[in-house]
Amino acid sequence: xxxxxxxxxxxxCLCHSCGMACDFTDQPHExxxxxxxxxxxxxxxxxxxxxxMFTALAFYVPANLLPVMNTKMLGNGADSTIMSGVxxxxxxxxxxxxxxxxxxxxxxxxxxxxxLTFLLMSVHRSSLWASKERSQLYRFVEVIGYWSMLDVIVxxxxxxxxKFKALADIEPRAGxxxxxxxxxxxxxxxxxxxxxxxWDKKRENPQNEEVMDEVTSx
Length: 218
What we know:
- The protein is mostly helical.
- 58% of the residues lie in helices and 10% in strands.
- It has helices at residues 45-65, 82-91, 95-124, 131-145, 150-161, 174-192, 197-204, 206-217; strands at residues 12-14, 21-23, 69-73, 76-80, 168-172.
- A hairpin with a 2-residue loop joins strand 3 (69-73) and strand 4.
- It is elongated.
- This is Paraquat-inducible protein A.
């Protein structure tokens, strides 16, 4: 069964700004339609993805250890971390809110770290295994990335709405800043990764891929 030609075989290059398929025969530097720089692959994709991910990991530790907000009720104040907030909601019977915060603030960043590490390692090893599934995993990482901002938005809204002076007051703490940085750098990491690298080795070794498909099918 003949495989369809790749964009590189047709000397085409997709513009990342406007999405136009540009003729790359003479290797133009800019898109004909929007003038954005053209490149067949994202520049230093793997190095930038590793750098952003390690930066996010460095911020992930203080984001979970430091308090994200301080709650004052009738003059008595208490700091809350992300995990302590989850436990308080769970103990109060609001298990649904606790589950949402846990998934958005702790599980989602963890899943992104594991998934991006797996994708990076597979590209470094020039793996031919499950290229389609790895591409789908990358799209999944992109989709769930935005939900990590939920905790930051909740703290910002609560802090702005609950202002009763002597009765009650909520103030953000340093932990929410670190958590926001985790979200930003994990999103930058996912944006820096070029999923086309997953398919490059398969295009270079189509026969090896066919052999692997036969082996896995038996």
